[in-house]
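Quick entry, no commentary yet.
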Amino acid sequence: MKTPFSSAVLAVCLILILWVSCKEPETPKPDDDPGEITSQEADDLLGTMSFLNGTQVTGKVPTSPDIALLQMQVEDTFYAAPGMDIPVRLRHPEGVVVGGFFVAVQNSTFYYDVPVFETQDGDSISVVIFEIKPASEKEPPYNIPVEIIVYDEIKTTIDKIERVITVEKPNEPGCTITRAPTQDSTWDYVWWSTISYNYNNEVDFFNAPGKPFVTETNYQGCCDPTKPDGKCNPLSTTLNATVNFKNLYMIEQEEFTFYSDGAYVRRTEEVKKHFDPTTTQWCAGWAGFSTVRDVVYYTGTHDFTPGATKIGFGAGTKSCDICGYGSPGGDLIYTCHLFAITRNIPGSSFTRIYIRWDGNVDAWMY
């Protein structure tokens, strides 16, 4: 016969079982901060990194004051995994020219000189790309406390930024990219970047939230100076005026959610700016245009299982007909904080990276 005490104990046990089964998976964490590290330890940590177009320089890294002039995407911690290329974007005031970064670890006997790979948004965003070497002898998880010294076009240092790179072990069964349909949005992933490499392993395409793709075109039309609005007869075939216009396409942001029941939802916000001949003032040389903002929802199925090194997507649907883009499956690298899907095709590879939204990412990246 159950007593009130035994019933209460049973109830508490059931609550604990449910809580443990529903809570987030435990993230394997690096060792606690050991404090100041030796030169050998610093070199070992820094040596696990490589940078696109970067060179290793022997000696102490040049110094710079920390004047908070520049803004980086993450507030404190970058997450990474061996074999995954991570773009880093740095925002700076217009007129401040960034030539590249010096990257070091405190007490390291060498540093990396990394030139800017790309500039965006009127040269106010600079991009570099780093990787954790897949052949590194150091076993994740571990932290790399990096000092980033930003320099200008003549390599004069202009600012200092300190961040921690947490290197996680990929495809650990203790981590997952899925969440229960009732779980909170901590398990939603946000798009970080897309990189394509050609057959020479050179970057031939890079995209990230808020990066505009612009196509500049000259359009021809008709100007009738005898008319108040300068417009010709709609049936006129005269082409005596030209205007220049920059068509634009941009993905402002994207979220991806994988559910444990095999379903997924992807939400993409797109902006398009197109030339509009009907509102163009041909005589004045002013191009008319229309701006369209689409929020596209994709739904479908996935075949992810913990520990998987590939992911595939079943037939899906999207919320509009002439918007959006495909998102094929491929090779999968994932940790508790990010994942990358790589599609290999003859002569090139195409990688999309998503990070788990946890409030560590500054909103300007959107």
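second:
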Amino acid sequence: LDVSFNTSGTLKDLYKAKGATIFLDAALQADKKVVAAGQVWNGSNYDFVMARYLDNGQPDATFGTGGYTTLDFNNLSATATSIVILNDGKILVAGSTSGKFALARFKQDGSPDITFNSTGYRVYSFDASVARTIKIKVQDDGKIDALAGHTLARFASDGNLDVSFDGDGQVYVDLAVSGDLAIQADGKIIVSGRTSYMAAIRYRPDGSIDTDFSGGKVQYLFTDYDEEIGAVASSILIQPDGKILLGGHTRFYNFARQPNHWAIARLNTDGTLDNTFNGKGTNYYSNYADEYVTSMALQDDGRIILGGYSNGASTQTPGIYNFQLRRLTADGQPDNTFGNSGTVLSPVGNGDSRNYKILISGDRILAVGQAQFANTVGVIVAYKLTDQPAATPSITLSTPYDIIKYSSPARIKLNAVVNDAAAAIKKVRFYSGTTLLHTETKAPYGFLWDNVATGDYTLTAKAYDENDEVITSNEIHVAVIDANVAPYVSMKQPSMDTSYTGPADIRLIANAKDPNGRITKLDFFVGNTLLFSQKYYPYNYTWRNVQPGTYVVTAVATDNEGLSTTSAPVTITVTNANLPTVGSPFPANGSDAPGGLFSFKLSPNPVANMLTVSIEGLQDKTGQLTLLNFSGAVLKHYNTGSDKRVQIDVSSLAKGMYILKYTSGEKVTYKRFIKM
């Protein structure tokens, strides 16, 4: 477990006192905050519940009330099962209430977004009685695809059914049980679940069955065994190369006992099994214990994490379920470097525990679900993604702003930080050469060495722990001279290459310190132009109404003897607020494609080398691509002709944000991408 998350690696819902709580889904924000959604008992029925946690596992006090918010559906029971973070930071949640499908939208602070149906939520007539099969995804244009039992529906961003989708906004899903929903880069929709077998159906963007996908439906995947029964593909994951992973569970007739086994299949884009995956396109795990895959995640190196739960027993008899993770190599083999032969089994709480969603956040896996303590509570468990070797204890010695030259008689502030000590620290000693300067017994460990004479000094610190182990710091070589020393200055804010939208108000902050006297003046410059001058700390200034352009900002600090220092320059960019809206669609035109459908997609995004541009819906019309920097300056043109799939080499571009413009006749659209 990753004990840096909530100090133990396990987070229990803080609101369990209000009643039983279950987390059924979760999503990561760009700032690594995790938002969990599910249901909470209010004393008479269940409400939608959301909780947001910081990257360290602590509740986010800026969200709802103490990190927690609920939504009551007129005193009717409700369960939230699917959550999406929208591009503007708002949160879209789907679930059911009294057997009907429900959508709710919340602001970033957790309050209901009353611009959505005036109440923040909406209930629809189609059936959602099997609550936990409800899933939502959001298209690039903001439209919402929703799976609820036998219904696949599309809504506009305002919650109204989109009648351009199969004529009435919804289609029937021909599966006995639905499991998950995914959207491909080309806008096609995959729904997984089961017939009597693990199965998946693919729909075109207009809602029609995609017959290019094995005739429209994929099933009978595990043909190397006797007939599978009770199988469900409960999770879909689309890889960057377009291949499709189906994860779930299955059973087989040819086993004497028939527990559920974790099962996974990888399909090519046409629905056929990918034989580069475990040699046959499928893999399963059988240890005669009930096992379920509920979620999957893909690492950057192509390895696959399967999340779910297992009763860990040696027979079919149901037992207490535990959180379980498995990791596969990119070609479908168990990754024996992960946990115990590729598997991690985690009892959580003192009873039944089930994992419904996994997320990869940096170097950790977050597993979200429920566990039994005094009652059922929502939990998030954090695992280290890779086992790191134990950190070597260390002590770091520093001076403020790393100043190493002073004027005599000098005042030198020394700071020592002890990292990853295995035992408690009893004391820290500061040395000049072999001469003991000071002993500190309490953190933070610091010492002001005063009245230091001219000379060269080698400074160190030593930490002594309760086991009498000694850790020695780095050396700092300090010179004290009989002359004035120039002050230190640096720009703290903004950082290099920061981009703003103009006209902008830009906050400038500088750090400055004089090694032997005091700072009498700090000036902010743009190029050679003085912006502002001030005499006292803190050194900051708000530069207002900055127009589009590229600027070089510096700070100049002057001490009480007139000696000055100029900071390293910081380059910033202010872009034009009147650039066209990125991602705006082409006007619909029925002559170009059925129903006016048009697709302009970039992948991968972010991109390092080759950017693939996919254009659909214009039939044989020709077009041109224009590459712009984020200020709107044209960098290059590409004539695409009638090609609808183009690759662009962007490896030579500097890191940052760019815009790709597509022009075909009078139609123009834009997409933003990030160069890594």
